[in-house]
Amino acid sequence: MATELEATFDAFATASAPHLRRLARTWCRDAHRADDLVQEALERLWSAWPRVRADGNPAAYARTTLVRVLISDARRPWRRLEVVHDLLPERSAPAAASVAGDDAAETHDRMLDAVRALPPRQRAVVLLRYAEDQSVAQVAEALGCSEGTVKSQASRALGTLRARLADCRPTTTEVSR
């Protein structure tokens, strides 16, 4: 029985880890910290695995657990053992990039910076609602709040993002290309 539980958990963790890492990395923009947070979420999932497996939706439980770990970690920055003094670039600049490619990369970086500057709950709503393409009800369940809270947090976050990124919007001539 124990080996069957371990085998099912190992298979689930192996299959879902890339997706969880992508969500965590989008949240914190640090690949190593994202790996640590995914590991903590999977540890919590393991302790509840028999119940979670019986419920039949371990992916939703894993996402919810990861979001809660992310929010908890953001609330307690003093608990981290390592302090990042400077962030290295996430990707190297291409040697011969086109001007349009540079503009797109710059816009992408500005978007990520703007999302990262949002308060934790608004960031969680934006990532789950738009990056993960979940419904309002699913986001409310994952964050443990009402659907109205999800809607208001999404509205505030999108308003903030629009204000911060107003100059990044393409003009009508750029759209028609």
TrEMBL record:
Instruction: Check the record and name the SUPFAM superfamilies matching this protein.
Output: Sigma2 domain of RNA polymerase sigma factors, Sigma3 and sigma4 domains of RNA polymerase sigma factors
Ranges where the RNA polymerase sigma factor 70 region 4 type domain occurs: 109-159
Write down the InterPro entries for this protein, in alphabetical order.
RNA_pol_sigma-70-like, RNA_pol_sigma-70_dom, RNA_pol_sigma-E_actinobac, RNA_pol_sigma70_r2, RNA_pol_sigma70_r4_t2, RNA_pol_sigma_r2, RNA_pol_sigma_r3/r4-like, WH-like_DNA-bd_sf
Biological process GO annotation list?
DNA-templated transcription initiation
Annotated transmembrane regions: none
CDD domains found in the cross-reference section: Sigma70_r4
Domain RNA polymerase sigma-70 region: from-to ranges: 15-79
A Pfam family: Sigma70_r4_2
Q: GO molecular function: any one?
A: sigma factor activity
What keywords are annotated for this sequence in UniProt?
DNA-binding, Sigma factor, Transcription, Transcription regulation
Q: Which domain of life is it from?
A: Bacteria
Protein family according to the UniProt entry: Belongs to the sigma-70 factor family. ECF subfamily.
What name has this protein been given in UniProt?
RNA polymerase sigma-70 factor (Sigma-E family)
